[in-house]
C-alpha cells in the first residue's frame, strides 16, 4: 500500500512539474506590442446596470453626469479616437429608406421624443429627433441633455468620418444577416479598411457569419464564439493544446478570472497568436457590472506584458490612464470625472 502511495505521489509531483513548465508564463517569449483599448459605445453617460433587462431604458438610469457626451454620436466617437482608442464600438441599425445609422436601441422611445421601431424611420426622420431628450439622473425631475441632441443620430458615413485615426467595431444588434450585406455595401462604397488592422465586427451569429463572406480577413466574432473559446481553453489549455474554437477566433478573459487561464499572460498570448486568435480582457463579472473596465485603477490588475485588447466602458477615465500622451482633458473635466468615479466606487463598494 505504501509503495503505491509513493508511486502516486511521485506521479503527481511529475505531473505538477510538467503542467507548471508547460504553462509557465515566464518561460514564454515576451509579447510584442502594447495593450489596445476598445471603447464600448465611445464616451457615454454611465448608468446603473443593477437588475437591468435587455429592453430596459438605460437613459433613465444614468449616473449624475460629469460630461455632456452621448453614446453613438460623432462627437463621442471623435473624442474617443482623439484620446487614443484603437477601436470604437458602435451599434448599427438600417433605416426604412436603405440607409444605416449608429444607434443602440430597437426603438426610439427611450432616448428621443418619438416612439416606434428604429428601423421603421427614414434617415431624415431620425436626424430630426433629439437624441438627448430622455436622459435623466433623478427619476425624471430634470433632463440635462434635452434639446442638445437634435440631429445627433449619425449616419454610418458620418460615424466613419468621425472615427479619425481609430477603427470602428460594428455591433450587429439584429440577427438578420441582410444587415451585414447593407453594412458591407456601405463600407465598400466608403473604401473602409477591413484588413487585420482595420474595422471589425461582432454580434449575433448570423450577421457575423455573413460579414465574413464579404471580408474574410477582417476580425469578426460573435459573443457565443468568444465564450466558447474561453470555456474550451479553460478546459484544455493546461495541455498546451489550443482548442479549435479559438483558431482565428476570440477569447474573453474577465478581469477577475485572469488567474484561471492557463499560462496567463505570456504563454496564453503566444498560443493564441500562433492560431490567429485575439484576446479581449473584459471587466469584472457580477450583477450590475459593465462589460468593460470603468475605473482607471482596474488597468493595474492587467499584466504589463499584455498586448491584446481591453474593453473600456468609461473611456474618459480609462483611456488616459493607459495612454497618457493623448490626454487632453481640462482641469475642470478631470475634477468632475474624479467626483463621479468616487461616487461610483462608494455605490459599489470598490
What does this structure look like?
By secondary structure, the chain is α/β, with parallel strands linked by helices. The protein has a single domain (35-49, 68-105, 155-348), classed as TIM Barrel. Helices cover 33% and strands 12% of the residues. The chain contains 10 helices and 9 strands. It has helices spanning 2-22, 74-83, 123-127, 156-162, 178-190, 205-214, 223-236, 266-274, 315-322, 331-348; strands spanning 36-40, 87-94, 100-102, 167-172, 200-203, 220-222, 250-254, 278-282, 309-312. Strands 1, 2, 3, 4, 5, 6, 7, 8 and 9 form a 9-stranded mixed sheet that branches. Helix 8 (266-274) links the parallel strand 7 (250-254) and strand 8. Helix 5 (178-190) packs parallel to helix 6. The longest helix has 21 residues, at 2-22. It is globular and about 75 Å long. The relative contact order is 0.14. Mean pLDDT is 93; it is low at 9-18.
List key phrases describing it.
alpha/beta; nine-stranded mixed beta sheet; globular; 350 residues
Count up the domains.
1
User: CATH homologous superfamily name?
Assistant: Phosphatidylinositol (PI) phosphodiesterase
**Class inferred from helices and paired strands:** alpha/beta
Please tell me the CATH architecture by its name.
Alpha-Beta Barrel
| Overall shape | globular
- Can you give the mean pLDDT? 93
Q: N-to-C SSE series?
A: HEHEEHHEHEHEHEHEEHH
Measured as a percent range, the helix fraction is 25-40%
Q: Strand fraction band?
A: 5-15%
The total count of helices amounts to 10
- CATH classification, class level: Alpha Beta
Radius of gyration in whole Å, from Cα? 22 Å
User: What is the number of beta strands?
Assistant: 9
**Sheet of most strands:** 9 strands, mixed
Classify the fold: give the CATH topology: TIM Barrel
Domain GP-PDE: 35-322
Protein name: Glycerophosphodiester phosphodiesterase family protein
Organism: Qipengyuania profundimaris
InterPro entries: GP_PDE_dom (IPR030395), PLC-like_Pdiesterase_TIM-brl (IPR017946)
Amino acid at each position: 500500500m505504501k509503495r503505491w502511495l509513493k508511486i502516486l505521489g511521485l506521479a503527481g509531483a511529475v505531473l505538477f512539474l510538467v503542467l507548471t513548465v508547460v504553462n509557465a508564463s515566464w518561460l514564454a517569449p515576451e509579447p510584442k506590442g502594447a495593450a489596445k483599448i476598445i471603447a464600448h459605445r465611445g464616451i457615454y453617460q454611465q448608468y446603473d446596470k443593477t437588475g437591468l433587462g435587455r429592453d430596459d431604458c438605460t437613459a433613465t438610469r444614468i449616473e449624475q453626469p460629469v460630461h455632456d457626451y452621448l453614446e453613438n454620436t460623432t462627437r463621442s466617437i471623435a473624442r474617443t479616437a482623439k484620446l487614443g482608442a484603437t477601436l470604437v464600438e458602435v451599434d448599427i441599425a438600417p433605416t426604412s429608406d436603405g440607409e444605416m445609422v449608429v444607434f443602440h436601441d430597437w426603438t426610439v422611445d427611450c432616448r428621443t421624443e418619438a416612439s416606434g421601431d428604429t428601423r421603421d424611420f427614414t434617415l431624415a426622420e431620425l436626424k430630426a429627433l433629439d437624441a438627448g431628450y430622455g436622459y435623466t439622473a433623478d427619476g425624471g425631475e430634470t433632463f440635462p441633455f434635452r434639446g442638445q441632441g437634435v440631429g445627433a443620430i449619425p449616419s454610418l458615413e458620418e460615424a466613419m468620418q468621425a472615427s479619425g485615426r481609430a477603427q470602428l467595431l460594428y455591433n450587429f444588434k439584429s440577427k438578420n444577416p441582410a444587415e451585414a450585406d447593407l453594412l458591407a455595401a456601405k463600407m465598400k462604397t466608403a473604401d473602409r479598411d477591413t484588413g487585420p488592422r482595420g474595422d471589425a465586427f461582432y454580434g449575433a451569429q448570423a450577421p457575423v457569419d455573413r460579414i465574413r463572406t464579404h471580408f474574410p480577413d477582417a476580425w469578426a466574432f460573435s459573443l457565443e464564439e468568444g465564450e466558447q473559446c474561453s470555456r474550451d481553453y479553460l478546459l484544455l489549455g493546461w495541455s498546451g493544446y489550443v482548442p479549435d474554437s479559438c483558431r482565428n477566433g476570440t477569447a474573453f478573459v474577465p478581469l477577475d478570472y485572469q488567474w484561471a487561464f492557463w499560462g496567463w499572460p505570456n504563454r496564453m498570448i503566444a498560443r493564441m497568436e500562433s492560431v490567429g486568435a485575439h484576446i479581449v480582457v473584459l471587466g469584472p463579472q457580477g450583477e450590475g457590472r459593465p462589460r468593460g473596465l470603468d475605473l482607471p485603477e482596474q488597468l493595474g490588475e492587467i499584466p504589463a506584458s499584455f498586448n491584446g485588447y481591453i474593453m473600456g466602458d468609461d473611456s474618459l477615465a480609462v483611456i488616459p490612464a493607459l495612454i497618457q500622451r493623448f490626454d487632453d482633458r481640462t482641469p475642470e473635466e478631470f475634477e468632475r470625472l474624479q467626483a463621479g468615479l468616487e461616487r461610483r466606487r462608494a455605490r459599489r463598494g470598490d
